[in-house]
Design a protein that fits this description.
It contains 2 helices and 10 strands, in the order αβαβββββββββ. With 190 residues, the protein is mostly beta strands. The protein has one domain. A hairpin with a 3-residue loop joins β4 and β5.
């Protein structure tokens, strides 16, 4: 049986197009993007599945505690209960006691980048940050931060499709007239 050049070309095109369209979630080498969006029901459910894993830690630079403002009892780590639901993040510390609540608004910015573009990996992993910001309501050891601005980052390794399982850590930057500090910790999906 003889096959023509056209037949082989058609088969090669079909196989190539199947590979190209086989993975809608896959990212490409060198990919980088920033998108702002209003979270849909899926995103809100996934964000609500997140919980803190381990203690929250206080970020310190070379100037140490002298550069921390807005916390009355400074510690290197805090035992926390961490809840993100209905556009509100609540971080509650125990011994010493305090609460930070951040109203996160309706918009989220997603930043994703291939950190190893020369690897040419299939289904390129993307370092991803979901960025929120909003007003801080605080009490207890964080009372001086009341009225400040909170910038929350949820980060991990994803591709175009993501779930709470892919997010590994969080960072909360608190900035304002009476406050300047950053807490961070691990994440787990429930």
């Amino acid at each position: 049986m003889r096959f023509s050049f056209g037949f082989f070309t058609a088969v090669a095109f079909f196989l190539h197009s199947q590979a190209a369209f086989a993975c809608a979630c896959c990212a490409d080498p060198g990919e980088r993007f920033t998108r702002s969006f209003t979270p849909d029901a899926y995103a809100l459910e996934e964000f609500a599945r997140l919980e803190n894993e381990g203690p929250a830690q206080l970020f310190l630079t070379a100037c140490g505690e002298d550069c921390v403002r807005g916390i009355s009892e400074i510690s290197f780590d805090y035992n926390v209960d961490w809840h993100l639901e209905n556009h509100l993040l609540r971080v509650v510390t125990h011994d010493p006691a305090g609460t930070i609540a951040v109203s996160l608004g309706d918009n989220v910015t997603r930043f994703s980048v291939d950190t190893a573009p020369m690897s040419h990996a299939m289904n390129t992993p993307l370092y991803t940050e979901f960025r929120f910001n909003g007003e801080i309501h605080a009490d207890g050891i964080f009372a001086n931060a009341d009225g400040a601005v909170g910038d929350l980052v949820l980060a991990g390794e994803t591709n175009h499709c993501w779930s709470a399982d892919a997010l590994s850590h969080w960072i909360l930057q608190v900035s304002g007239e009476g406050a300047d500090f950053r807490l961070f910790g691990g994440l787990a999906a429930r």
